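Hi W.,

Here's what went into the run:
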Amino acid sequence: MKVAITAAGPELSSPVDQRFGRARYLLVVDVPERTLEAVDNTAGMNAAQGAGIQAAQNVIDNKATALITGHCGPKAFRALKAANIDVYLASGGTVAEAIDQFEAGKLEQTSSADVDSHW
Amino acid sequence: MKIVIASGKGGTGKTTLSVNLATALAGVTTTGLLDCDVEEPNCHLYVKPAFAPTEPVGTPIPVVDEELCTGCGLCARACEFNALLALPGVPLLLPELCHNCGVCAYVCPEKAISEVDREVGMLGAGEVHGMYFRWGLLHVGEARSTPLVRAVKDLTDAPALHTVIIDAPPGVACPAVEAMRGADFAVLVTEPTPFGLHDLRLAVETARQLAMPCGVVINRVGIGDSRVHDYCAQEDLPILLEIPDDRRIAEACSRGEVFAAVDGAFADKLRVFASDLEARVQRAVTR
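Here's what came out:
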C-alpha cells in the first residue's frame, strides 16, 4: 500500500512535518518496501487559501490510501474522508520512525479533525 | 458625488464621521449612507432605522450535475482557490473557499457545472431621518464579505442621490478595497498617534493604487504627536478636517447620539467640509 507522510525533507530520515497543508514535502512511501517518491509542496506552503485541500489532492493523485501527519484541520479532513483516506497522527520523530509505528499498529487513527482551521 | 470614508486603522472614527456627515447633509441635499462594514456594522446604532436587514444576499457557487460529470477533474485543477477537490467520482466542493469566479463551469467539457446562489448575509435599505440608508450583515462564519459589500453599494433600486457616503470597513484588505472602489474621493480618517500614522500610510497607498484622489481627516486632535501632520505635509496630502479631542463628542457617541444633530456649529463645520469635498471632486474630474 501507499502511505503519504508530511515531511520537512525529501528522505526517510527527514522529520515528520506537523503541518499538513503547509508541509514542506509530501512523501509517498510504499509499505513495506519503503521505496518513496517525494512530492514538493511549495505550492501548498504558499497557497493563499485551501492549502489543505491542495495537499489532499496530492495525496489522492498519488494513490495513497493512508496519510500520516501531525495535525489535520476540518476542511482537509473533509476532503480526505471524501476520498476514503485514513488519517493517522504522529507527534514527532522521523518519517522512518512514523512508518515503523504505523506498521506496528501503534499510530492513532483519527476519526475527525484534531485542530481548527489555520491552527 | 460618492465619498468613501476609509482608514487603515480601526476605531479612528470612520463611522462617527460618516453618520455625522450624513446627518448634517440630510436636510440640505439628497444623501445616502452605505454601511459597508458588513462584518461589524454600527451606523445603524446611530441612525436607528426601523428596518432590519432581511433581504437575503447570495453569491453563486458551482453545482455539479452527477449525470453529466465524468470525473475528469479539470474543474478542480483550474480552481485558483482550492475550492474543488478532484475525486474518482464527482468533485467535492468546499463552498467557503469558493470565490465564485466561474472558471470551473467555464472549463468543464461536459457542461456539467451550473451555478446557484448561496446565501452569505442580509441586506436592509430604506429612508430614515431624511437620508437613504443601506446596510448589510454578514452571516456568522462567512469568510468573504465582498459579495455583500457589493450588494450594499448597489444603488440600482435607490432613489437619486446627490451625495453618497460610504462607511468602509477598517483595514486595506479586499473588503475595504471593495468599499472604496468606484468612489470619487477617499476620505482617510486617522488619529495623531504612531498607530494612526502607520495605518494611514497603508490607506494612502491603497487609494493611490486605486488612482483615487484622497485627503485626510484627523480625529481626536490634541492627543498623540505631530507626526501625522508632518507626514501629510511631506506627502502633499490635504488635511480636510480636524476634529478636536472633545469629550462632548465622545459622550454623544457613547449614548448612541449623533453630535451633529445636537450641535449646530459641528453640523455647519461638516457642511463646509462637504462643500470642500465637492470642489475637490469637481477639480479631480476636470483635471
